[in-house]
Write a structure and sequence with these properties.
350 residues; mainly alpha; Na+/H+ antiporter like fold; 78% helix; globular
Length: 350
């Protein structure tokens, strides 16, 4: 039962990620955000894969999952920290949010590929081509279908007095899209993400003005879905921790400490490397790099998929959880320190 609720929690978590995705921010800061996103995606992935495969002599599939867990930035944590520091609308804030959007999309596509590899038990060109084709088809059709269904839901919400119609309909929509994604040959997780992306008040379809979601309705979806998401997603995080048998890990072995420390360094350096090529002033590049470090829920989803598919053993899973935990907890404190230091510097100059 807990596993089933946790799976619903993952779907709703990706629904929320899609709901918070801002395509327009990516368009406004296009070049800089793309550099940060692709650099921060490719460098940790390639470094993570290479070190896991060559240094620790792990299999190709295990190494791919380790690299994948280091790629995606947690857009939820990034948005929350920037908002709390009142820096969301600054130049670096816009670059970070645009990069996090693209990062999440790339992360979801990579997750879909690794999911297929874990089921098929190997990596083939046919599997890769099939998954990419189904993902492309699903991302084209799903937003249109979600927009049309949302108009129907809005209509009934306007004319009826049925309590909790929106959250009930939204949960049903997410589950429907997860099933459709599975039937089309794409991972179920894409269903939740695509539904959230299409219903975001910041998402639009080219030449689809008639299908544009009203901002007020999108805000109602966000506010009424928040309690449902907050109910189910902690169950997913509980499920992440439950299988972790700390007693079975040899904490005196060099492997767990060298593994965790090395990939923590890769996770940090990989995001900084992308930020260093933006052409922004050094202070802003450092802030952008720190803001892109949090892995949060996306890293945990990669790690949990690796565990449930039998690709990660207990030690590797524990090591990845340690890396994800540190990359999630440290950046908010570092960002607060950097902005305070910047404010003091400006005050001194004036």
């Amino acid at each position: 039962m807990i596993k089933l609720l946790a799976e619903i929690g993952i779907l709703l978590l990706l629904f929320e990620v899609g709901l918070e995705t801002d395509i327009r921010k990516l368009m406004r800061t296009g070049r800089s955000s793309s550099i940060v996103a692709f650099g921060g995606f490719l460098i940790p992935f390639v470094l993570g894969f290479f070190l896991a495969h060559q240094l620790f002599d792990l299999s190709v599939l295990v190494s791919l999952f380790i690299g994948g867990a280091l790629t995606a930035t947690s857009i939820g944590i990034t948005i929350r920290v920037l908002t709390d520091l009142h820096q969301r609308n600054t130049r670096e804030g816009q670059i970070v949010l645009g990069a996090a959007v693209l990062d999440d999309v790339l992360g979801v596509v990579l997750l879909a590929l690794l999911y297929e590899f874990s089921i098929a038990g190997g990596i083939t060109l046919a599997n890769t081509s099939k998954v990419l084709a189904f993902i492309g088809l699903f991302f084209i059709l799903a937003p249109i279908a979600a927009k049309l269904i949302s108009l129907l839901i809005k209509h009934f919400d306007d004319i009826s007095d049925i309590p909790c119609l929106i959250p009930t309909a939204m949960v049903s929509l997410v589950l429907l899209f997860a099933w459709l994604a599975h039937e089309m040959g794409a991972p179920e997780l894409l269903g939740g993400f695509a539904a959230g992306l299409a219903l975001s008040r910041r998402f639009f379809l080219p030449f689809g003005m008639a299908l544009r979601t009203e901002p007020e309705f999108s805000e109602r979806i966000e506010s009424q879905m928040r309690p449902i998401i907050q109910l189910f997603t902690p169950i997913f995080f509980v499920m992440v921790g439950l299988p972790l048998n700390l007693k079975a890990i040899d904490w005196t072995s060099a492997f767990i400490w060298s593994f965790s420390l090395l990939f923590l360094i890769v996770a940090i350096i990989g995001k900084f490397a992308g930020a260093m090529f933006t052409g922004e002033p050094l202070r802003k590049r450092v802030i952008i790099g720190v803001a892109m470090i949090p892995r949060g829920e996306m890293g945990l989803i990669f790690a949990e998929l690796g565990r449930t598919s039998g690709i990660f053993d207990n030690e590797i899973y524990a090591g990845m959880i340690i890396v994800i935990a540190f990359t999630t907890l440290l950046p908010p404190f570092l960002m607060k320190y950097l902005y305070r230091r910047t404010d003091r510097h400006h005050s001194y100059l004036t």
